[in-house]
Structures are given as structure tokens and as C-alpha cells.
Amino acid sequence: MKFDKTGLIPMIIQDSESGTVLSLFYGNKESMKKMKKDGYVWRYSRSKKQIMRKGDQSGNRQKVVSISQDCDSDALLVKVEPSGPACHKKKFSCFCDDGPILLRLTKKIAERKQKPSKKSYVSSIIASRQKIINKLNEELAELIEAEKNSEIIWEAADLLFFMLVYLENRSIKFSKVLDELERRWK
Question: Which of 71, 96, 156, 182 has the smallest C-beta neighbourhood within 10 Å, fewest atoms?
Fold first, then answer.
């Protein structure tokens, strides 16, 4: 790693599940040692001039999944599993308010599985693999039969949504599907 003249290196913090950039921090050699030792994001606060573990005050820690260097070794990409909002303003990310739609959907579907609601259609089918398969078949047929672009978009969204419900039923994270696509692309 190449630290700058002040002994710091920029760290881009990214949600490992969604790929969303959460924050930009700076690290130094000591924060890097602490991060590798306990598995959570440690950063150097330039304003407070001290090393801090992300989330010690808010409780929103970030568990490190991986750390990689850029091509010049002068910046880091730190993929994390956040335990809450990344931003000190209680936003999902320092760069956006509530996260990408796929992440919000997968969280809501998981919530419906854990805490079923009698008013929720997802809650009524989430535990039945056969009901979800039937819904997927129905949505696929509707997508294939759609003629207008607006209908195709509508039906594709339905199919994708119920695919997410199926993955949650099988306890498979959508990020694993994205990882597989990435593997195939290489």
C-alpha cells in the first residue's frame, strides 16, 4: 500500500451485498492493523486526529468482507456488511438516502418472511415453494405474451420481484446471483 505524504490512504467503503458505495474514509498503518485484527472498519479521523472504529458511537459498525488495492496501490476498496446506516446523518450511504431498489426489495421480502403480515401477498406465499413457482410461471408467461414496451417493462419487473421472493424462500442472497454473473463475465 502506498500511503500519502501525511501517512494516509483513501478507503472507499462499499456494501458487499448491493455494491453501493457507502462512504469515503482515510486509513493509516495503525487503522489497517486494527481492521485486519478485529474484522471491522477502522479509520483515521482527520478532524479529530485519531483512529476510530466505524460505528462505535452509533452502533452501525461495518464488518469487513474484503480489502483490495487499486492498480496503483494508493487507494483501497473495502467491501463490508453494514449493521445499519453508513452515514452519520442516518442515511443508508453518504452518497444516497435509502439504498438501491434491489437492496430495499430484498430486505422487505426478508422482513415479510420473518414477520408475516396477513395483509401481505408476499407473506402468504413466501413459505410455499410451489406457490412461488406457480407465480414465477405465471409472470414468465405474461412477460412472453406482452406486446407493448410498457407491458414488457411491467411484466419483467413482476418476474424479477418474484424471483427475489423465490431466492428468499431458498435463503439465497441476490448478491450470490450477481457474483455468478460476474464470474461468468470474466
Answer: 71
- In whole angstroms, what is the distance from residue 76 CA to residue 99 CA? 22
107 and 40 within one domain: no
pLDDT tens readout for residues 153-179: 999 999 999 999 999 999 998 888 988
Dihedral angle, C-alpha 32, 36, 68, 12, nearest 10 °: -50
Q: What is the CATH number of the domain that holds 49?
A: 3.10.20.810
Q: Which residues of 73-95 are buried (b: 16+ CB within 10 A; e: fewer)?
A: eebbebbbebeebbbeeeebbbe
Written as nine digits, the cell of 13 is 467503503
CA–CA gap between residue 26 and residue 85 (Å, rounded): 19
Supply 74's cell numbers.
494508493
State which residues form the domain around 127: 101-185
Q: For the segment 132-157, what is each residue's pLDDT rounded down to a tens digit?
A: 999 999 999 999 999 999 999 999 99
| Backbone φ, ψ for residue 180 (5° rounding) | -65, -40
Residues 142 and 171 in one domain: yes
